[in-house]
């Protein structure tokens, strides 16, 4: 069974956003994003190698999707390097599916598959500080602890939403974001709609009163669009 997919346009937007996060980690910007949502940038690479290694923490459907997005970035040498989850079966299933889909872009050996509550630390420890990226796609209750460890190790981060579920955890995430900034670490969150030119224009038009006085406003997105 293939990995879950969304529409081509939405998938391209997600890949581009994650790709830009990956590229910034080594001073490169991915290009060729979704139609009408693109800003091309030159590709530059660090001395020695342009390979970016990714550690996936959380092998649910969204985690596998985020890994697939990263591996699909055009003109980026991204490889899945390590996987962590609390269930071995999840690791086995997602590693097999991603390998079938991307083949040479998945380089996850048995000794880089980690199981258990502390598995995220082992996965992050496989990455190179200042170059590689940890993808966190576990339930949000674990996000702050995982984020803090990545910052401690000097690893760039992509996090799936939501990143927090209450006031105290939100304040902790914001404080950790300041620590990441202080260490010049790149952090991305899977809120791709905020990077949509069309959605930003819609928001600006509403703010400018083109729809009149808004008393109530609901937004819906058809699944897969």
Features:
225 residues; Rossmann fold; 6-stranded parallel β-sheet; 7 helices
Question: What report would you give on this structure?
Answer:
The chain has helices at about 10-25, 60-70, 90-100, 120-125, 145-155, 165-180, 195-205, and strands spanning about 50-55, 80-85, 115, 135, 155-160, 185-190. The protein is of the alpha/beta class. The chain has a single domain, classed as NAD(P)-binding Rossmann-like Domain (Rossmann fold). The protein has a six-stranded parallel β-sheet with strand order 3-2-1-4-5-6, sandwiched between helices. β1 (about 50-55), α2 and β2 form a beta-alpha-beta unit. α5 runs parallel beside α6. The longest helix is centred in the first third of the chain and has 18 residues, at about 10-25. It is globular, with a radius of gyration of 18 Å. The two termini are about 20 Å apart.
Quick overview of this protein structure:
The protein is an alpha/beta fold. It is built from seven helices and six strands; from the N terminus they run αβαβαβαβαβαβα.
Biggest sheet strand order reads 3-2-1-4-5-6
Runs in which pLDDT lies below 50 for 5 or more consecutive residues are 1-12, 22-48
CATH class: Alpha Beta
Question: Tell me about the biggest sheet?
Answer: 6 strands, parallel
What pattern of helices and strands is seen along the backbone? HEHEHEHEHEHEH
The domain count comes to 1
What is the CATH superfamily label?
Answer: NAD(P)-binding Rossmann-like Domain
Rounded to the nearest angstrom, the distance between the terminal CA atoms is: 22 Å
> What sort of overall outline do the alpha carbons produce when their principal axes are compared?
globular
Q: What is the CA-based Rg, rounded?
A: 18 Å
Mean pLDDT reading:
81
The share of residues in extended strands comes to 5-15%
Share of residues in helices: 25-40%
Number of helices: 7
What oligomeric state do the depicted chains represent?
single chain
Structural class by secondary-structure content = alpha/beta
How many beta strands in the DSSP annotation?
Answer: 6
């Amino acid at each position: 069974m293939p990995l879950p997919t969304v529409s081509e346009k939405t998938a391209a937007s997600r890949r581009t956003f994650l790709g830009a996060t990956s590229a910034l980690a080594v001073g490169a910007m991915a290009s060729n994003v979704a139609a009408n949502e693109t800003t091309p940038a030159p590709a530059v690479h660090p001395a020695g190698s342009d390979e970016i290694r990714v550690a996936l923490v959380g092998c649910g459907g969204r985690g596998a999707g985020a890994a697939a997005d990263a591996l699909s970035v055009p003109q980026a040498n991204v490889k899945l390097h390590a996987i962590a989850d609390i269930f071995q079966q999840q690791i086995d299933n997602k590693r097999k599916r991603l390998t079938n889909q991307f083949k040479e872009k998945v380089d996850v050996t048995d000794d880089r598959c980690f199981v258990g509550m502390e598995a995220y630390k082992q996965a992050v420890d496989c990455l190179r500080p200042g170059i590689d990226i940890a993808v966190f796609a576990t339930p949000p209750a674990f996000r702050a602890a995982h984020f803090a460890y990545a910052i401690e190790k000097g690893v760039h981060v992509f996090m799936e939403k939501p990143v927090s579920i209450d006031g105290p955890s939100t304040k902790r995430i914001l404080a950790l974001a300041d620590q990441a900034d202080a260490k010049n670490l790149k952090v991305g969150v899977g809120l791709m709609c905020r990077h949509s030119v069309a959605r930003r224009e819609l928001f600006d038009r509403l703010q400018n009163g083109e729809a009149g006085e808004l008393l109530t406003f609901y937004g819906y997105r058809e699944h897969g669009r």
